[in-house]
Each structure stands twice: as structure tokens, then as C-alpha cells.
Amino acid sequence: MAQIPTIYFICGAGLGSSLACQMEAEEVLASHKVRAKLEHESVSSVAGLKTDVIVSAESFRPQIEKYEIDPSVTIVYLHNIVDKNEITEKLVPAIAGREV
Amino acid sequence: MSASLSQLVTDDHVVLGASADTWQEAIRQAALPLLRSQAVTEEYVGRMIDVVDQFGPYIVLAPGVALAHAQPDGSVSRTSMSAATLPRGVDFGKSEHDPVRLVFCLAAQDSTSHLEALKAFVQIIRAPESVERLIAAASPQEFSSGLVPTDA
After folding, report:
1. Cross-referenced CDD domains, in alphabetical order (chain A) (predicted)?
2. pTM score over 0.95
3. Residues in chain A closer than 8 A to B113 (CB atoms)
4. I need a labelling partner for A90 at 20 to 30 A (CA). Which of B19, B35, B105, B145 fits?
5. Contact A26, A34 (CB under 8 A)
């Protein structure tokens, strides 16, 4: 059974910038032929998340690091959440190898 | 049904030539049309400011452009967006993207009704010439015509 990895995009409200980031990432992943399930949520929901990868802005690092997150989850922090180059550089290696 | 960007940012939701000394004031200016049309409550405006207080200026998504937004929690009566141009600019504290000269406010009632609009928004703000065109708009109509992505 092929397992498609899940990526959660996190921001303060879970519907503005996280979604903007998700859209950019969608294009990046498609151009690298990486399959993944993309979701977005607010930072307050991070604790209970079942996911493979979490993507968020650097400014949420202190908040996210407070939670006990399953060590198997890769967390990617971005300086510029709509910068395709940064997304490519950080997210593509994070997802590589998770697709079975 | 997801609304397009120009459907959400209606002519009466555009504030041209605003001026603000602080980023808080800039968000308030940009949010005025949403309050006026009762799309959101005063509480929602306060929450958009709280988000930045708490997590920093991550809402500044591109050079000169901020997307203010917060979790609705009943303070949004309908999905809508507003925008303000601030020709003098205001610093949000994100050095690589300051000064901000274009502030959008997003009020989403649910997690899907603003999808199309946000997609267009992202396409527009990543093109510096499109951002400049919006900032230079002389009328709300001219502003609206800049909200249609060209590379879609």
C-alpha cells in the first residue's frame, strides 16, 4: 500500500497565511512530482496533529516548540512562507523518503 | 462556492491613500470598510492585531504587502476582504519586507469560501509590478482591475 505523507501548514488562524503557504507548496511539490496530502490548521491545534511534516513560519517556532510533538514528525520553519525557493530547499528534502 | 478576489474586495472595501504611524493603525484603517459593512465586529479587528502582537509580523507575506487575518469565532458575519494603500508606508517589523504599503484584511467565515480569492492574492503579491500597480491605483475601480491575476 502506498502511503501518501501528510503535510500540515500552520499559522495563527489556520486560514490565511498557512493557506497561502500551502498553495505555494502545492505548486512546488507538483513540479517535483512529490505526492502529499496538504492540510492547514491554526497553531493552537498543533498538539494533537497526526501528520508527517509540519510547515510554519519562523515566528511560530517558540510556540510550536512548547508542544510535545511526535519525534517522527519533521518540522520545517520558513522565513518567507510564500517564497518558492525556500519552500523547495526545505520542504522537498523533508518529504523525500517519506513517500513509500 | 468560492468567491473571486475582486468579488470579496468590492469597491467600497478599498481605502486609497491611507496614512498610519503604526502597523496597528494600518490594520485598523484597512479594516474600516469591513466594520462599516458589518462583515466583522470590532472584536475581530482587535484579534487581527493580537495575532501580530503574539506571533510577530508573519502576516507580511511579500515586500510591502501584509495580509491581516484572525480566527473568526463568530465575529465574522460573511466572508469578505478589504484593502488599504498606504503610500507613505508603515513598518511592521519584518525588515526584509518593510515598509508595508498595501494591507489586506481577510475575514473568512469558514475554511473554504475564500480559497479562490486567496489563490489569486498569492499570484498577485508575488509579482512586484502587480503590487506597485495596486499601490498606485487612483480609484477603487482601478484597484479592482489590478486584482485579477494575469498569469493564471
Report:
1. PTS_IIB_ascorbate
2. no
3. none
4. B105
5. no
